[in-house]
Amino acid sequence: MSELLLPPEHRYAKRIKEQLNEDGSELSILNLGPTHPATHGIFQNILLMDGERILEAEPTIGYIHRAFEKIAENRPFYQITPLTDRMNYCSSPINNMGWWMTLEKLLDIEVPKRAQYLRVIVMELARITDHIICNSILGVDTGAYTGFLYVFQFREKVYEIYEEICGARLTTNMGRIGGFERDWSPEAFRKLDVFLQDFPAAWKEFENLFERNRIFIDRTVNVGAITAEQAMAYGFTGPNLRAAGVDYDVRVAQPYSSYEDFDFIIPVGKSGDTYDRFCVRNAEVWESLSIIRQALEKMPEGNDFHADVPDYYLPPKEDVYTSMESLIYHFKIVMGEVPVPVAEIYHPVEGGNGELGFYLVTDGSRTPYRLHFRRPCFIYYQAYPEMIKGSLLSDAIVILSSLNVIAGELDA
Amino acid sequence: MALETIQIQDKLTETFGENVSHYSQEKDIFSFEVAADQITAIILFLKNDPELRFHFLTDLCGVHYPDNEVNRQFAVVYHLHNWYENKRIRIKAFIDGENPQIRTISNIFLSSNWMERETFDFYGIDFIGHPQLKRILNMDEMISFPMRKEFPMEDSGRTDKDDRFFGRTTDNY
Question: Which Pfam family, an example, fits this chain (chain A) (predicted)?
Fold first, then answer.
């Protein structure tokens, strides 16, 4: 039978032939994915199983590889944000802002304080939606659909805020070099206020449903545990690393966009298992809410929403039609004719899943010479076979879901 | 005491001499070039030295420089991070364009396993000693290395789109 599933020269096929259990049963192969609904994305794992236990796993990735790094080498700088959107599409504003900040570091552009705070707000909103998805889907995978239904409407509310800010919902393409494309509307702030009012109660309810739930605890405690040393060796960052007890967070280690102005704690776990990952994400949502409130409170007066950099920032449309200078700038920026120094830049931001880095090499031309995305998912997903070794098939699903592997980010 | 870049530089010159060169501070990251055949020794030293402690591999990727002389046409770029002192460094190792080879560091940093596979997949750089060096994002049947500069992004037979009108030529990478 196994010949039908795998080429006979595959090492698993060989092992099945060689290894026969004492009771006469034989090992089997199970294809988890590539399009299994429980994997929430397109990746395949060939599992070698002994009954319900997983002996070994071989992941195959790349099913939605779209060659973003190659495309980026052929696009002017401002056309690269739409590519970053499609990496971790659960929190695209973080990717967008990370890319703009990379360019601002390259060009030495100082973004006004108010725009930085607006960016912090939108990045924290994105983190909340990212964690909403991860944790509520983890609930679904353990058999608890209710929590998902309670909190998922709030992702919708956040998307409405995005819509007010940039017009898009999922793949936001938000911001410009030096700030935002337009000032936030009063409606955006109103929706944000409503969200800040309604969401905490729902999130509290969600937490109550799970944190002391016997079934949930049985399904998650000591499932997919990873030690801090192992996690670091495998390149874990973000909530998954913090669940193992290491308090590394780019927002604190290397503050960007004025994160140093806010007071927040980095929640850490202890055992690095699925339950800790769940709790760390829960706690991070509270911290994100607190950061958003602080940012709104400390928001500087005025209406600065972008830096004054006419070489890189598009002039207002009404000027383009009436003044020659604006028309020239508009044309140059749209055609990608902007002055860019020859340099190498690495800029990290704390994405929903960990350190999202942009390594940019420029040669002074209109496009990046080389752009590499450090995608946290891609790096920590290699630990997955190790983490599910010896566990049950149903645990493998839960572990995958608690790692929050986003196919778009995995494959870029 | 915080870890100063001059300390890193002194230690490296003391231990590896000529094999580490081109020290420079590029914006917020201290970077240098290393001789490709010394890469494992240098990375191991940076990781295990009690003062340097660059214990975390942030990133590993390749870059193609087809205009360089033939023995410097590919670069493998490593970003290391010391979390104790919060210090980042960038290491570049230039390798030969005809037969790009470098030793793997997957026995030093487990996380480099897939990053090296990705680099191999895109650039065809052979990481000697890698446990499972095969394509990761592209399909196994592929014969070219798509991130090399000579690889066209689009089908060169297309006639409906003339890039010259947009300031690009078809061989403009």
Answer: Complex1_49kDa
